[in-house]
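Appendix B. Chain record.
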Amino acid sequence: MIWGNNNTTMSIKANASKLITVYHPGVTLAEKLKEMEMSVKEFAVRVSKPEKTIFAVISGNSSITTEMAVSFEAVTKIPASFWLRKQQMYDEFLVRKKREEEAKASIAWMKLFPYLEMAKRGWIAAVKTPEEKVRNLFEYFGVSTEKAWANYYLNQQLKIAFRISLSSAKDPHAMSVWLRQGELQAQAEQLNTPFDEKKLKSSLIAMKQLMVAEPDDFFSQLQELCRSCGLILVATPTLPKAPINGATRWIRDTPVIQLSGRYKGYDNLWFNFFHEVGHILLHGKKDIFLENAGVTGLDEAKEKEANDFASEILLSSHDEHEFLRNSSFSEADVLEAAKKYNTHPTILVGRLKHLKVMEYWQGQSFNKHVEICS
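Structure tokens predicted for this chain:
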């Protein structure tokens, strides 16, 4: 016979088709006492417990402790492990029931995320019910509640790991999705090489040479160069409401550069990459740097330092001044200068346009677009 009341039973769905009912162990105890034809009072005496304690267990208002389970075993001949397992299962399902209620309460929060776009990209499972989506978002972010997500991404409660709040971003929910995806990509790398600052500095020449040579697989080669230095480089496509060029942060003791390839320009990609490398070599582990993300709290001085670092690698200030002394910037001039200064023609054209020496419509033949995000 299965019996109980609202305090002793609960039902949850293990999946879409199967319904599991879990009973408080007090239900089993009551049935066993009936089978043994033993009153609650007699049982209480035999296990050396107050009668009210046994009534509390039977009614589902009290849990069975380890000490009680061992005492029950002596009288009922049912192993203590059975009673403890029943209690553990019931306690777990109570918590899961509470989680179901929290999921329902977080449906409005879930709707703020680009869930459909995430599912299309395979970042999260495509499910139908709002509650399932909430649970999947908790799992995606590695948090247990909506409040935990807010504390991490908005309230800066983990300042050592995440120094910039997304609360000022136009769409902090979409931005957090993009950042988390980069973190998951970095975790999948399973990099065992410790970060080597000296090796990264010495590898800058090879990285720049890769830019100049522009092989078809330049990005995968660049990633491998980064790995050899203990640096992780990932490419994450932007989301519609999360416009961002890139981000740099340290995950544990490993620096991670996350690029979006947002503008797809070859010169933009390399400038962004060396800009992020600048943050790693010039600045501390405690900051996270978000590029063109529309958030406040950025350290403008550090951003300028990273810009100067990238600019100097792509085309040194000395070479730039020498190049600008030319009166002509024809296609032949650009190609000759790129070879002379060991840089890429798109870098020179981009620099000329930035300095307003060349009109935006000029140098179109040097435009090179790349796609780093599949």
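Further analysis of this model is presented in Appendix C.
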